[in-house]
Design a protein that fits this description.
globular; five-stranded antiparallel sheet; single chain; 586 residues; outer membrane lipoprotein receptor (LolB), chain A; alpha+beta; Transferase(Phosphotransferase), domain 1
């Protein structure tokens, strides 16, 4: 049952094409370029879509998986949901093919290295990079959990670090057997027969975090029985990690799943608070910069041979990646190859769409800086390292956003989480809150100054100015906090900006840190009411990552609240220029 045509499908998917078979059949419509690796689940091949020329990774599943009816039934549902999910921390799944010749998963090809290979080559990452790994992992898990999918086998081999230091999760649900997963990362309750759960994914993510901090896993054992006992009964070795991070380790590795964070989003908020308190508001940019350096150094190394890989596994903890649930021997080795430098970026689909006119959303003008000056027609250049003029950056962002107009986004602010698509001032999002009654994500559409929320089978319009409670209020707050106009205003009014990463000739995207007085920003379109509420804090400190053309990718700004605690607003943007249609609901 092919799953072509979903939102994640690369443009121009073909149904025919060259069948240059590499040790087996070739998915129709693709041409193989090279084999990347093999493992317990199957072989992985770098291929090119014959029509769109998009590079992809295709995993051909082994025959034993094709004969596992329970696995296939579950994975079909997981793949259907994943194909509709777009998130900057999740590798896109384009298609799940089930044909007479076999089954295959077609997915995005990421330029970067696997965390497994990076740890084997360079050891512990240091606290800032480890926090970046955990933060990106939790954001990715929050996205897939909200879609009703579990990872089931999270470990460093399934975490990719791309060329900009971003964390990308892959291989969701590809773990047959009960309990599924890799023994070194398996939560205590799974050893006792409990079903997989979100709490189990959070436990595995924390094991990975510990491994990044220390260079080894928290629990060891000569065999699965000894390892199970260590996970279920062994004391959590918090003394081996930096003091400010011990609470994160204790909560994530709690023996009782009820004692772990309630969700990946909750865990991410706790991480943000701990990281900012210990390392300052620029912790994420600094951690990502460190990951960029480590990934580049790892990619430059020759791929490890199997003996070196097994030795690295043993040095980090409990021997090779043993599995439970019916699989024998080591788990998939292919992510080591997928992380090699031979990979090309397959995220080009985000730039392959051209916007033509309105997509049914806001017909208002594109964003512009709050000052009277308009953006220059010429394409601006990236400022040199050191002090940067905020007005120049604001014009650069305005020019870039005016050309692309639409994007997917993920926003997190105090008490609110949202993800979806935007086109200038129009938003189509799912939104949830910190209160128990609002934790289940709900869909909302914002057009101009009206929020539409679904009540039963009907849509209810609520003016933004009156949207103060429940889901309408959450959507209004996400609109304010995630607005590109707010990003432009922060840059335009900034009194101090420094470029801290991605200077000319350096790897990674440009990253800017600065401060902005909030007084006077109340008139900013869309974000103005938020800035008015925050004005009593005096100023906001921010970290903004742009791509080389000026498109915002990651934005974080923080203020000190009335209670003396930091209030942080974070937005990730991706897929700029992708076609988006946001219309008034009927």
């Amino acid at each position: 049952m092919p799953m072509s045509g979903g939102p994640g499908t690369p443009p121009g998917r073909a149904t025919g094409g060259k069948h240059n078979v590499v040790d087996g059949w070739t998915a129709p419509g693709f041409t193989h370029r090279q084999e990347l690796g093999r493992g317990a689940c199957g072989r992985v091949v770098l291929a090119v879509d014959d029509e769109s020329q998009t590079a992809v990774a295709i995993k051909y599943l082994n025959e034993d998986l094709r004969q596992d009816g329970r696995f296939l039934e579950r994975y079909r549902a997981d793949a259907r949901r994943l194909s509709q999910l777009e998130d900057p921390n999740v590798v896109d799944l384009y298609d799940f093919l089930e044909l007479p010749e076999g089954s295959a998963v077609v997915m995005e090809l990421v330029q970067g290295v696997s965390l497994a290979r990076m740890l084997a080559a360079q050891g512990a990452t240091g606290p800032l990079a480890a926090l970046s790994v955990l933060g990106g992992t939790l954001l990715g898990l929050a996205a897939v959990h909200s879609a009703g999918v579990l990872h089931r086998n999270l470990r460093p081999a399934e975490i990719l670090i791309d060329e900009a230091g971003n964390v990308r999760l892959t291989d969701f649900g590809l773990s047959p057997g009960e309990p599924p997963g890799t023994a070194d990362y398996l939560a205590p309750e799974l050893w006792s027969g409990s079903p997989p759960s979100e709490a189990g994914d959070l436990y595995a993510a924390t094991v990975v975090f510990f491994e990044c901090l220390t260079g080894h896993r928290p629990f060891t054992g000569r065999n699965n029985s000894a390892l199970a006992k260590a996970h279920r009964e062994g004391p959590i070795p918090v003394e081996e990690v930096p003091g400010p991070l011990r609470e994160l380790i204790s909560r994530g590795l709690a023996k009782d799943p009820a004692d772990r964070p309630a969700s990946a989003a909750d865990f991410a908020e706790a991480l943000e608070e701990a990281a900012r308190s210990a390392y300052g508001p620029a912790w994420e940019a600094q951690g990502r910069s460190r990951l960029t350096e480590m990934a580049a150094a790892t990619a430059a190394l020759p791929p490890p041979d199997p003996a070196q890989q097994r030795a690295a596994d043993r040095s980090r903890g409990s021997g090779s990646h043993r599995t439970v649930g019916g699989e024998k021997g080591g788990r998939r080795r292919w992510p080591w190859a997928v992380g090699a430098a031979v990979l090309a970026v397959a995220a080009a689909a985000g730039g392959a769409y051209a916007l033509t006119g309105s997509s049914g959303g806001s017909d208002g003008p594109p964003p512009s800086p709050p000052a009277s000056s308009q953006p220059a027609a010429a394409q601006p250049t990236t400022p040199a390292p050191g002090a940067v003029a905020g007005a120049d950056l604001a014009r650069q962002v305005t020019t870039a956003v005016t050309a692309r107009r639409s994007a997917s986004f993920v926003h997190r602010g105090p008490g609110v989480s949202a993800r979806g698509a935007l086109q200038l001032d129009a938003y189509d999002m799912t939104v949830s809150g910190a209160q128990a009654a609002l934790r289940r994500p709900a869909r909302a559409i914002v057009l101009g100054t009206v929020v539409y929320v679904r009540v039963g089978s009907a849509w209810r319009p609520v003016p933004v100015a009156q949207a103060t409670g429940a889901y309408a209020g959450l959507a209004a707050r996400a609109r304010e906090g995630g607005s590109v106009r707010g990003v432009i205003a922060l840059l335009q009014s900034s009194t101090s900006i420094q470029q801290t990463g991605g200077a000319a000739g350096q790897p990674g995207n440009p990253v800017y840190r600065g401060t902005t007085p909030l007084a006077g920003l109340g008139g900013t379109p869309v974000a103005g009411p938020l800035f008015t509420r925050l004005a009593g804090s005096g100023q906001a400190s921010f970290v903004i990552e742009l791509d080389r053309t000026g498109l915002p990718l990651k934005v974080q700004y923080s203020v000190t609240g009335p209670d003396g605690r930091a209030q942080t607003y974070r937005t990730h943007y991706a897929n700029w220029g992708r076609r988006v249609a946001i219309a008034r609901p009927r």
